[in-house]
Amino acid sequence: MRCPGLIRVQAPGVSFHALRHDGGIVLLDSGFIGGLSLLARSLKRAGWDALPITGIILTHGHLDHILNAGRLAAETGAWIAAPRLDAAHYAGSPAYHGLSRVTGFLETIGRPLLGFRTFTPDRWIDDGDELDIWDGLRAVHLPGHTAGHTGYFCERHRLLFSADLFASYPGFSHLPPEIFNADGAAIPTSIARALALEPAGVLPNHGDGAAPEVHLSRLVALAKRRGLA
Ligand SMILES: [Zn+2]
What we know:
Layout: E1 6-9, E2 16-21, E3 24-28, H1 35-46, E4 53-57, H2 63-66, H3 69-76, E5 79-83, H4 87-90, H5 101-113, E6 123-125, E7 130-131, E8 137-141, E9 150-154, E10 159-163, H6 187-196, E11 201-204, H7 212-225
Parallel strand pairs: 3-4, 4-5, 5-6, 10-11
Antiparallel strand pairs: 1-2, 2-3, 7-8, 8-9, 9-10
């Protein structure tokens, strides 16, 4: 699968993506600790370092995806588009319940320590929204990990940016651990929804640098193991 105009900013913990759009760059998530220097390095390697960052699209409100969004937007003037149902996360006051209170606790410590800047998105994302970005992206609500957790599907490449629907590594692909999930019971339905799109490839945020087709085959295998496909 060849997708020109797409860079994967690979980090050990959480990766994110940069898309060429209209003479600039739109980010899909904003990375975590060290994310901005990794981004600068990736853009330089691709020869994109002179291009302006014009927009940031978010997949969900967890700190490892939104940490740099407010700061980047303030520095570059980029707009932010983000799932409406995770609004409290961007304001720095998400409510966590059950096991995911562990995540809430970690984020409460992490926000001031890591210099998180709260922000209000310029555009709210809802299920089915079409974004005229890159080769076209459609918001696909895949709830469970968070209430607003959203993937973005590019029809033209049949590529799904699957965010934290699953984590993809050779030999140990898995669902997100329960301490990170708002409603883990909803994730199987979201996986079924993702596979029903019949993607040719998927790109998760937690995974190795494998090709989208390989990530997809791991997701299908995971779904089969769980009796979902
Ligand atoms: Zn997450």
